[in-house]
Amino acid sequence: MAHQQKKDILAEVRIVEEAKKNPQRFGILYERYYKPIYLFIYKRIDEEMIAEDICAQVFLKAMHNLSKYTYKGVPFSAWLYRIALNETNLYFRKNKTRRAVSLEDAGIYRLGEEQVFEEDEYEGQIHQTIECINQLAEKEVELLELRFFEQRSFKEIAYLLGINENTAKVRSHRLIEKMKKIIRRDGK
Predict the structure, then answer these.
(1) Alpha-carbon distance 76 to 5, whole Å?
(2) Chain center to CA of 55
(3) pLDDT, tens digit, for every residue of 79-117?
(4) Nearest alpha carbon to residue 19 among 66, 58, 83
(5) Where in the chain is the domain with CATH 1.10.10?
(6) CA angle at residue 88 from 67 to 15, to 5 degrees?
């Protein structure tokens, strides 16, 4: 996700304020964020129709609750992603299904930069990542995906998960250490 400049965020806040007064202005936000929100959901669900339904629900909730939105130093999109995350998690709870995790090359490379892996072979890293993810709690997988596969800032992660920024940093560091231990243990 490309991080927005402060001036872009403030311009967006003006659009949100206009949309609060005139719901037709919400269309600008819908057009801007439908695809990224849909992809965010689809990566977790891995089923097009269900992802489309959840995405529609996200924008419906956003439109109905737009009057409650207040700027908190993160882009408006973070508010939408938070709704999407909540709706996706609700889907998993209701249907008692496990979420999909999209392992992209860049995310595995970023984990490698954190020296999670002991080997340089890419195929081995994919295997180790899958094995490791299978041993993590749902909240840990969520954090891993947000930080390393979606490259969200700690500020955004904190907002999305309803924690403070320092807690997001600490949990991320602990998660990396936990993954290193799992990989060392399983490698022996």
Answers:
(1) 12
(2) 14
(3) 999 999 999 988 988 887 766 555 555 555 556 556 555
(4) 66
(5) 105-187
(6) 30
Q: CA 107 to CA 20: how far, in whole Å?
A: 37
The yes-or-no verdict on residue 56 having pLDDT over 90 is: yes
Residue type, 50: I
Where in the chain is CATH 1.10.1740.10? 6-95
Q: What is the pLDDT of residue 119?
A: 58
The matching CATH number, chosen from 1.10.10, 1.20.1530, 3.40.50, 1.10.1200, for 105-187 is 1.10.10
User: Do 169 and 154 form a contact (C-beta atoms < 8 A)?
Assistant: yes
Nearest one of 78, 71, 74, 99 to 33, comparing CA atoms: 78
The class that CATH gives domain 6-95 is: mainly alpha
Give me 49's structure tokens: 């129709």
